[in-house]
UniProtKB/TrEMBL annotation:
UniProt protein name: Glycosyl transferase family 2
InterPro entries: Glyco_trans_2-like, Nucleotide-diphossugar_trans
Glycosyltransferase 2-like domain boundaries: 8-124
Transmembrane regions listed in the UniProt entry: 334-354
Keyword Membrane found: yes
SUPFAM superfamilies per record: Nucleotide-diphospho-sugar transferases
């Protein structure tokens, strides 16, 4: 049973001990009164420093060795008593007033179901790297009705759930789960979907919010410190590490493309089949194209599990080009990007049927590098 007006902070830590104490101390420094939020730490290890912080604050601790991001989160969700759920990755931190801003927004604005704030990137030592926003854009709050977005997307023939002018102002608001908060009732409707989610948790939460009936609150203030470091990605086994850097990079690339194919297909299935352009299905096809061209003999059997027909390829290009035109006000640049994306995607698709040769390696480097820049800019 949820407690009205209580925020449940779910902290997740998997195999990383060194940054967790910093994340927990950022919760200790919050200006929101302690009786208005609870902390649930889900982790798969013991650590004297972190455990001491958890105990002295009376916070909950949950052990889980689940490797699926969705199931790892569920372990904390099942312990949560608050009607507002927010998240904190072990390597990120909150600004001292983040929870207060989340609490105030949910309490003062009727029908808010989702909150998202901007991030301030930091390095491994916690030093600020750069500022993403112009000073004129900071501390603004945008309120968007999810159903209004649906109508806009129906008019455009898309399934984006992001209004183009809003995208140009704030960018896509489904990145970094440490910057998100969502109503517990909304998230609980998707428990079974969470059990199947291996990766892309932030995409999933944002997608769930846009499928709801309420308001989306997009706050421009940089309330989250997002840490950039070499271990932002999952570590490889010793067997992978013994390979050359080139092979290790290719294996890592393949692993992530497979994860994102599964994750984006799962999220894409949440949207109506009538959507002609589903951004998450689009991402899934894009990931398959990159997977095809990775020059590894061991992946040959994987290609058959993720087929892409010419019809799917055509749909991918049609939607990707349409999205690029919406996002880029420079029509000439958008047209050139569309041509490059089409050419590169065709090369990637063909590359999946080529033998592992130096030519295919060159093809992967050329087509993959160029199309990836455009693909991730969509």
């Amino acid at each position: 049973m949820s407690s009205k007006g209580l925020i449940s902070v779910i902290v997740t830590a998997y195999n990383r001990k060194q940054y967790l104490p910093h994340a927990l101390r950022s919760l200790e420094a919050q200006t929101l009164p302690r009786d208005r939020f609870e902390v649930i730490v889900v982790k798969n290890f013991e650590d004297p420093v972190s455990d001491s912080i958890i105990r002295r604050n009376g916070w909950k601790e949950v052990y889980s060795d689940e490797q699926y991001q969705g199931r790892f989160l569920l372990a904390g969700l099942e312990e949560a008593k608050g009607d507002i759920i927010t998240f904190l990755d072990d390597d990120d931190m909150y600004r001292e007033d983040r929870l207060e801003k989340v609490y105030t927004t949910f309490k003062s604005v009727t029908d808010v179901v989702y909150f998202y704030n901007s991030q301030k990137p930091i390095d491994e030592q916690g030093n600020i790297l750069y500022t993403q926003l112009k000073s004129s854009a900071t501390e603004r709050l945008y309120l968007v009705k999810s159903r209004a977005l649906l109508k806009v997307n129906q008019r455009l023939g898309l399934c984006l759930f992001e209004e183009p002018s809003l995208i140009r102002v704030i960018g896509l608001h489904d990145f970094n789960s440490s910057s998100m908060a969502i109503g517990k009732a909304v998230l609980e409707d998707y428990k079974e979907n969470l059990r199947s989610l291996k990766l892309a948790l932030d995409f999933f939460i944002g997608s769930v919010a846009r499928n709801s009936e309420g308001l989306l609150a997009i706050y421009m203030g940089q309330l989250t410190y997002y840490r950039l470091h070499q271990k932002n990605t999952s570590s490889f086994s010793n067997a992978w590490k013994e390979r050359s850097k080139r092979l290790e990079a290719l294996y890592r690339e393949a692993l992530y493309q497979i994860f994102y194919i599964n994750g984006n297909q799962l999220i894409g299935n949440l949207y109506p089949k009538s959507c002609r352009c589903n951004r998450y299905r689009l991402f899934a096809v894009g990931s398959k194209l990159h997977l095809y061209a990775i020059p590894l003999k061991e992946l040959r059997y994987v290609y058959n599990e993720f087929p892409t027909s010419l019809k799917e390829l055509y749909g991918y290009l049609r939607c990707a080009i349409k999205l690029k035109q919406l996002h880029d006000e420079n029509k000439a640049r958008a047209a050139m990007s569309s041509i490059i994306l089409t050419f590169g995607s065709l090369l990637l698709w063909i590359g999946g049927y080529m033998p592992i040769t130096p030519l295919r390696r060159s093809l992967y480097d050329l087509a993959g590098g160029v199309t990836r820049k455009i693909y991730y800019a969509i």
